[in-house]
Specification:
CATH superfamily: Homeodomain-like
Mean pLDDT: 90
Radius of gyration: 19 Å
Strand content: under 5%
CATH class: Mainly Alpha
């Protein structure tokens, strides 16, 4: 692996973490991880992950939403069982 490839891998790894924060714009994230041009960031991100940064962010948000829903269902089941046994 060349230095350039390694650097891209590290930048995209950091970008994936930052994309989980909805308050940051994708353009801000691209600059934060070291890209001068958002088009280069978008290209490298898609090449590494198979998704555009926006697609990745949306997929992550859906995943989190699904996890929260599953936890809420489990909590309701547990609390209902406790109330039934009282």
């Amino acid at each position: 692996m060349s230095f350039s490839e390694y650097l891209t891998k590290i930048r995209i790894k950091r970008a994936k973490k930052l994309l989980r924060d909805k308050s940051l714009l994708i353009k801000e994230i691209s600059y934060e991880v070291g890209y001068r041009h958002i088009s280069n960031f978008n290209h490298d991100f898609k090449k590494q992950t198979g998704l555009s940064p926006l697609e990745y962010r949306r997929k992550w948000q859906k995943f989190i939403f699904k996890c929260i829903n599953q936890l809420e269902i489990k909590i309701r089941k547990i609390t209902n069982k406790k109330f039934l046994t009282l």
